[in-house]
Amino acid sequence: MMSSILKLFAGGPTGPIVGNDWILKGISLQQLDKQGYINLPSSKFPIKFKDEFQDSADDHRTGPYYRRALRMQDEIELIHPIFDRSRWWRIDKNDYQLLVPSLMLASRILDEPHILPYIKGFLTKPLTRVNDAATEKKAGQPLYTFQYENLNAWHSEETWRTLNSMKQNVIFRFLPFHKDDVDDDTMGVTNDAPEDSTIVPGACKAIITFNKELLDVLQYKLKASNISRRWKPGTDAKSAYLRTQLLFAITAVHEVLHAIWRVNNAKYSSTDPTITSAYKQPFEPFWRDQRMNELGNAWEGQVFGGTFWPIGTPKSAAVPYGLFSLPFPGLTRVPPDDTVIERGEPEGWGVNWSTMYPVEMEFVRSLFTHEKWREVQRYGIRRLRRTKKLGCRVRLVDPDVKPAILGTTSPAASAGSVEGEQDNFGVVRRS
Question: pLDDT digits over 382-430, tens only?
Fold first, then answer.
């Protein structure tokens, strides 16, 4: 049965701080489309996913190479063992094939040596204790921070074997999400499975639940045209489908990070007098000195420059109007009884505004190509950052209401330069 516990590791902001329709209040659909944020030209399709990812797997020493070299697998496999079809609840062979392009991308992300230091960082013990007694008292258990750990500082083989062993410790499923249980834009959640972890005694296996809307879109049961408003030229079906494939891939990796933490960390004893938290699962560590401890969101921020969300309402996995990226933690807030801990309010950290950047469709497409991953291999994960050519800025006026100031901005714009430049409608435009 679904309950409020599903909010514990929702794939994104857990408080209603930034609404997904603010971009469309400042930027029209026509403007977004004209600048390449909604529809791709038909010449950009089809994408031969298997060929693209096969090139990446064969040419570079990523996960598939190491799994074969370490005899975990007999040959190059484009899908990480953790996403093996046997781990998907009530997903038949035909439905699994619809998931494959997204799972290839999710696997390519998990297998990228430039990204693994993040995972290795929060697995490496001991972690650094947070120097914040007040926040620890509020949390009711010890809090920690982590940073990147280079692969050569710890046996690389152990890293690959830990990830490989996750296959037996996580199960995936699709279920309808209800607004009473999760925020209405949540695409995935991670919870305890009833079995014990096979990796760490005292820890538990994990179950990852995806919003069934994702599966409905991938099965062609739900289309962007079913929910899109009427506008010209209208939403291209192939472009919208590609966005859903990307959203699913990123959500899958996001939730797997939560699962890795759960499976590899034993719960505190219920009789330990020093643990006053109602949650016995160790809270996730803070990435460096961030304000909030959310492994999935912090990872998205480090790799892509922000968390990805559908533009517009209704909030749907069909993504009819494009995606936008939101800095984390930014203005995000959480309830006081959550497992995501806040080290103060955004204003106390000097954060009074946030910018939502639409994600170019050419960038979305590039993530499914061999060329993009060759760039990552050569230049590092900064090549996975999307451009910031157009943005919509919001600012909190009252913590209990949504942001009240809109404006389009450029990547070079500072907070100070935006102030005072809005027109009568609160919109800032630059050439």
Answer: 999 988 888 888 775 544 444 433 344 433 333 333 333 333 333 334 3
The predicted structure's pLDDT at residue 275 = 93
The CA-CA-CA angle for residues 371, 376, 380, to 5°, reads 160
Contact 259, 265 (CB under 8 A): no
First to last CA, the chain: 52
Domain spans, the chain = 4-418
Give 430's DSSP letter: -
3-class DSSP state of 100: helix
Does this model's pTM top 0.85? My answer is: yes
Q: What is the four-CA torsion angle of 258, 308, 300, 402, rounded to 10 degrees?
A: -80
In angstroms, rounded to a whole number, what is the distance separating the alpha carbons of residues 177 and 131?
A: 38
What distance lies between CA 311 and its chain's CA centroid? 15
Look at the alpha carbons of 122, 126, 128, 130 in this order and tell me if their dihedral is positive or negative.
Answer: positive
Would the CA dihedral through 107, 318, 170, 261 be positive or negative?
positive
Give the distance from CA 267 to its chain's centroid.
Answer: 25
Please, which residues have CB within 8 angstroms of residue 194's CB and are 6 or more apart in sequence? Answer: 204, 205
Name the residue with tokens 């038949």.
Answer: 92
Report the alpha-carbon distance of residue 340 to residue 291 in Å, rounded.
Answer: 10
Q: Please state, for a pLDDT cut of 90, what percent of the chain lies above it.
A: 57
Nearest Cα neighbor of 227 from 235, 215, 238, 219 is 235
Q: Considering only CA atoms, which of 372, 286, 409, 330 is closest in space to residue 56?
A: 372
Report the alpha-carbon distance of residue 131 to residue 404 in Å, rounded: 35
Find the mean pLDDT for residues 360-378: 94
Dihedral (Cα; 236, 239, 245, 250), 10-degree rounding: -120
What's phi and psi for 168, nearest 5 deg? -85, 5
Q: Is 353 helix (H, G, I), strand (E, B) or coil?
A: strand
Strand ordering across the sheet containing 188-196: 170-175, 204-211, 188-196
The first and second tokens of residue 224, run together, are 């962007």
pLDDT, tens digit, 9 for 90 and up, residues 266-308: 999 999 999 999 999 999 999 999 999 999 999 999 999 999 9
Q: How many CB atoms lie within 10 A of CB 275?
A: 18
